[in-house]
Design a protein that fits this description.
Length: 175
């Protein structure tokens, strides 16, 4: 089958050179065009205003059945370059906003709460305050008797699955 001549010119040696128009009706050409269209569509997606779905967590943190008076919860989102979220715990209640959907590991730090009257801090179980370890953010004095395993993601054993939208997740910690 002879194709339609798209261009014709003389080469360096004086030979006539012809170039045929592409045969778009052949299956091979159709597949190539389809692939190019798919690649172009996929490359165009990052330029859109598409954002990853996010969720929020809210709940109560209890230690030995009692709300943690003060502390910090850390949510470490798993899978790639996902961010880490921190939230303060006040009277056992916390709230984390805008976390990416997916699996997450959790750490919890309990601190002595300052009494609104300015008297001695209230500690769970009448425990005494401990010195702050070097690797713990200094937002308060850690509570004596609060297990160190809850301070690191590899030992806390605390996990959650973040779903789109708001959700409740309580953490009941044991000594």
């Amino acid at each position: 089958m002879v194709g339609i001549v798209h261009a014709e010119w003389r080469g360096k040696r004086g030979d006539t050179v012809t170039q045929e128009a592409p045969r778009l009706h052949e299956p091979r050409a159709i597949c190539s065009i389809g692939r190019l269209s798919l690649v172009a569509a996929l490359l165009g997606l990052p330029g859109c205003d598409w954002t990853a779905p996010t969720g929020s967590l809210a709940g109560t943190v209890r230690f030995s059945g009692k709300p943690v008076p003060a502390g910090r919860i850390t949510v470490l989102c798993e899978g790639g370059n996902k961010p880490v979220f921190f939230a303060d715990i006040t009277d056992g209640v916390y709230r984390v906003e805008g976390a990416p959907v997916g699996a997450a590991r959790v750490t919890i730090q309990a601190f002595a709460a300052q009494s609104p009257t300015g008297k001695a801090p209230t500690l769970p179980g009448n425990a005494t305050a401990l010195p702050i370890p070097a690797n713990v953010p200094r937002i308060g004095k850690p509570v004596s008797g609060f297990p160190e395993r809850y301070l690191t993601p590899n030992t806390s054993g605390l996990k959650c699955e973040i779903r789109p939208g708001p959700q409740a997740k309580d953490f009941d910690l044991e000594p």
